[in-house]
Design goal:
Elements (H helix, E strand, L loop, with lengths): L1 H25 L3 H25 L4 H4 L2 H21 L1 H5 L5 H18 L10 H29 L4 H22 L2
């Protein structure tokens, strides 16, 4: 169980950072904060299970996983960064279900690859998926709610869109670097 919790924490790191960025940049309402945490947790829990069930059949995808994560995080990061400078976007931010779904997918691609190794942990697959998803949901909820509290005390939240965009671009570039390692 200790190994699974450590794996869960490491897989949740990108989602946690993204949730903090969302909370700071958009100051979403409570329902959307919960949706962020649940979406990220669900994807993190489902993707390793799919990876474990597909096994060797998907090894070709593993070569492309970091490219996919790079592309999605990079696009979202650039859009968030640009939105930080756009006065019109500040008054009506474009942060909806589609963006949350893309972020949840992009931050869980690595969990898909880790699914291939889940058979080394001697727990039922559903327990592993629920643990990974639960840890991610909890961390993302803490991140997005804590970030929202900080965002309310700051006078210029558009800066967080710029910073959040740069953080997501950094996460994307990290995935691109892994393509060459």
């Amino acid at each position: 169980m200790f190994t699974l919790i450590c794996l869960s924490l490491s897989l949740a790191a990108d989602a946690f950072v993204t949730a903090i960025c969302d909370g700071l940049a958009y100051s979403p309402k409570t329902v959307k904060r919960i949706a962020i945490a649940l979406s990220f947790g669900a994807m993190q829990g489902i993707m390793p299970v799919i990876g474990a069930l597909c096994g060797d059949k998907i090894l070709g995808f593993l070569d492309a996983q970091n490219y996919v994560a790079f592309a999605v995080l990079f696009i979202i990061g650039v859009l968030m960064f640009i939105e930080g400078f756009d006065k019109k976007a500040r008054s009506s931010p474009r942060f909806g279900a589609k963006t949350i779904a893309f972020q949840a997918f992009a931050t869980s691609v690595d969990a898909f690859a880790c699914g291939l190794t889940l058979n080394t942990i001697s727990l039922p697959l559903w327990v592993e998926g629920l643990t990974i998803g639960g840890v991610t949901t909890l961390l993302c909820a803490v991140g997005v709610f804590f970030a929202g509290a900080i965002g309310k005390t700051v006078a210029r939240p558009e800066r967080f869109k710029i910073i959040g965009g740069l953080v997501l671009i950094s996460l994307a570039l990290k995935n691109l670097v892994y393509c060459f390692l």
